[in-house]
Amino acid sequence: MSIIEEPFQRVVIDLVGPLPVTSGRREYIITMVDVATRWAEATPLRRTTAKDLADALFDIFTRVGFPQEIQSDRGQQFMSTLLKEFNAMSNIKHYFSTPYHPQTNGIVERFHSTIKNMLKKVCEQCPSDWHKYLAATLFAYRQQVHSSTGVFSALFFIWQSTKRTHGNFTRPLHQQRLVS
After folding, report:
1. What is the band of 180 on the pLDDT scale with cuts at 50, 70, 90?
2. Which domains does the chain have, with CATH numbers?
């Protein structure tokens, strides 16, 4: 792995859940944290299939830019053929953490702890409404000065105008015919 020198050089991704099932039948969150800026993304999911993850990552990356590298645990979904093809089409290198060593993904694990605590506080009366507050919770999280960077991650938007784009995505990945 390389030394991180710029935003979106490497992001760490993971899953949260199962959480209380929402009215839209969502019970998981895919999370992403940029290693350089600590910019965080979180998207509710119904399931954690490789297709669901690829779709969610595509939605995130087309909004904020494609990273050069992804780091994740060795979950079945992250090691799937579909995600390998998605990464290849996006020109993304995928690194996996050491088995049984969650500290490798400490950045995203700390984010999980924070976001779950924030959601727990705002959804105390109705835990299954967490999805309604996820965007506002992310907004609040991004406004906080991060202890490791000394700045708030919303400064990421200053950099975002130069976001990296890769791949030929004229249709969602799961609809494309992938040729080996």
Report:
1. very low
2. 10-158 (3.30.420.10)
